[in-house]
Amino acid sequence: MNKNLKLIIILLIPIIWSLIEWNISFSSICIIISMILIYVLISAKNILYKNKYTKLIYKIYRFVMMLFLSTFIILQGAITINFHRTSDVKSIENVNTMIILGAKVNEDGISKTLKRRLDKAIEYYNTNKNINIIVSGGQGSDEVVTEALAMKNYLVKNGVSKDKIIMEDKATTTLENIIFSKKIITDKNLKGKVLIVTSDYHLFRGQIIASILGIDNEGLCSISPLSSRIYYMIREYPTSIIDVYRSLKISFNI
Fold first, then answer.
1. How far is it, in rounded angstroms, from Cα 84 to Cα 226?
2. How confident is the model at residue 81, as a pLDDT?
3. Among the listed ranges 43-47, 52-56, 146-150, 169-173, which one has the minimum average pLDDT value?
4. DSSP letter (8 states) at residue 140
5. CA torsion, points 18, 23, 25, 31, in degrees to nearest 10?
6. What is the distance between the alpha carbons of residues 212 and 36, in angstroms, rounded to a whole number?
């Protein structure tokens, strides 16, 4: 078996796996494109080194690919390290306000992703029943109620005092979740450190945004099934870059 065929087989494995797991989706398309780009990077070197112009093009292409791969790996590593250290409620101390970031609400109730976030929030609430809880999430075009209302109803049904729950029902993005929740914290003069609760793959971005916007925060995450976690971690790469850029613009009033 020649080297080129071996390379093709190796690169086909993640493509086939992603298509089986996720069909045609954003993350599977990202994997397909990435594998093609890696194939070109490895296999085209000898062809493009034949003259100085194509050699220059290849060097630029290689630099861009190395930049992409290195930043992607660094981000995924940071997400992984972060959720391993923020999944236990026992590690949380000295927080006065909790922000639960919203997720999809289906016609028949909250999604599994949102339920996991809320269950983790309830787990912490049972150790600190004086905490203020901001449930943050607006209403999408395919949602029957706001995410904030669905979250409040679930929390109250599971023993959380409704007097401790504050609804933020306008946000449609993670960045808006943090911005609008910060306004509530400021308007209500809620002092102390903030606990951000969301999914494992999502927490790193939520905490980075909060830190850039001046919120002293801790994190607590629910754990997602492996396939779902990988799917969303891939999506976190472009969304994290976009949200960090937007957060910095807001922070510096650009």
1. 13
2. 96
3. 43-47
4. -
5. 20
6. 35
Asked whether residue 62 carries a pLDDT value surpassing 60, the answer given is yes
Per the prediction, the chain carries an average pLDDT of 93
Give strand pairing partners of 157.
Answer: none
At 130-189, the pLDDT tens digits run 999 999 999 988 899 999 999 999 999 999 999 999 999 999 999 999 999 999 999 999
Residues 188, 128, 151, CA angle at the centre, nearest 5°?
A: 65
Q: Output the pLDDT for position 1.
A: 58
Q: Confirm if 114 and 102 have CB atoms less than 8 A apart.
A: yes
Rounded Cα–Cα distance for residues 84 and 67 (Å): 26
On whether the CB atoms of residues 31 and 14 are closer than 8 A, the answer is yes
Helix-, strand-, coil-residue percentages of the chain, each rounded to 5: 65, 15, 25
Query: What are the residues facing 219 on neighbouring strands?
Result: 196
The one-letter code for the residue type at 122 is: I
Q: State the Cα angle at 241 between 239 and 245, rounded to 5°.
A: 115
- Beta partners for residue 191, in sequence order: none
Which residue type does 14 have? Answer: P
Token pair 């306004």: residue: 183
Six-digit token pair at 17?
Answer: 């796996």
Q: How far apart are CA 205 and CA 253, in angstroms?
A: 20
At residue 4, the pLDDT reads: 81
Which tokens in the block code for residue 235?
């999506």
Q: How many helices (H) and strands (E) does the chain have?
A: 9, 7
β-pairing, 165-168 vs 132-136, is: parallel
Q: Which helix (H) or strand (E) holds 109?
A: strand 109-110
